């Protein structure tokens, strides 16, 4: 069973190392991110949260994105970089994490 692993850098800090399995998803509470090195993990995207209203419309707040999603593709290593803050006005680098994807 694959996992959705939630990481909140501003609340709990950013781990220096993380070991996950193939297929696991890494959800960072952040406003930006990238894969700096390696091919074991891919950036799925940067997202703004939204909710479904009772009338069927999808509502999302104005402002910067709040979730960065990565997926563990294959065994190996990748270095991820994630950032917090407003990426358009006051970006702040939360740091990097070395991810090992176990077979």
Written description of the protein model:
The chain is 4% helix and 60% strand. With 103 residues, it is mainly beta. It has a single domain, classed as Sandwich (Immunoglobulin-like), CATH 2.60.40. Strands 1-3-8-5 form a four-stranded mixed sheet. It has a four-stranded mixed sheet with strand order 2-10-9-4, with no helix packed on it. Strands 6-7 form a two-stranded antiparallel ribbon.
Main features:
mainly beta, Immunoglobulin-like, four-stranded mixed beta sheet
List the helices and strands and how they pair.
Blueprint lengths: L3 E4 L1 H4 L4 E5 L3 E5 L2 E7 L2 E7 L3 E2 L5 E2 L7 E6 L3 E11 L3 E13 L1
Parallel strand pairs: 1-3, 2-10
Antiparallel strand pairs: 3-8, 4-9, 5-8, 6-7, 9-10
The name of the CATH topology is Immunoglobulin-like
The major beta sheet can be summarized as: 4 strands, mixed
Q: How many structural domains?
A: 1
Q: State the total count of DSSP E strands.
A: 10
What is the average per-residue confidence, as pLDDT, rounded to a whole number? Answer: 92
CATH top level class name: Mainly Beta
Portion in beta strands: over 45%
Mind telling me which CATH architecture this is?
A: Sandwich
Sheet/helix structural class: mainly beta
The best one-word shape is: globular
Task: Record the strand order, biggest sheet.
Answer: 1-3-8-5
Low-confidence spans: pLDDT under 50, at least 5 residues?
none
Q: What string, H for helix and E for strand, traces the elements in order?
A: EHEEEEEEEEE
Radius of gyration: 14 Å
Estimate the helix proportion, in percent: under 10%
Count of helix runs: 1
Distance between the termini: 13 Å
């Amino acid at each position: 069973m694959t996992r959705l692993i939630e990481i909140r850098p501003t609340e709990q800090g950013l781990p220096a190392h993380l070991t996950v399995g193939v297929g696991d998803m890494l959800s960072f509470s952040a406003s930006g991110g990238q894969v700096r090195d390696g091919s074991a993990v891919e950036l799925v995207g940067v997202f703004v949260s939204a909710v479904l209203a009772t009338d069927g419309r999808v509502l999302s707040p104005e402002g910067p994105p709040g979730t960065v999603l990565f997926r563990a593709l294959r065994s190996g290593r990748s270095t991820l970089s994630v950032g917090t803050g407003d990426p358009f006005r006051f970006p702040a680098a939360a740091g990097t994490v070395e991810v090992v994807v176990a077979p």
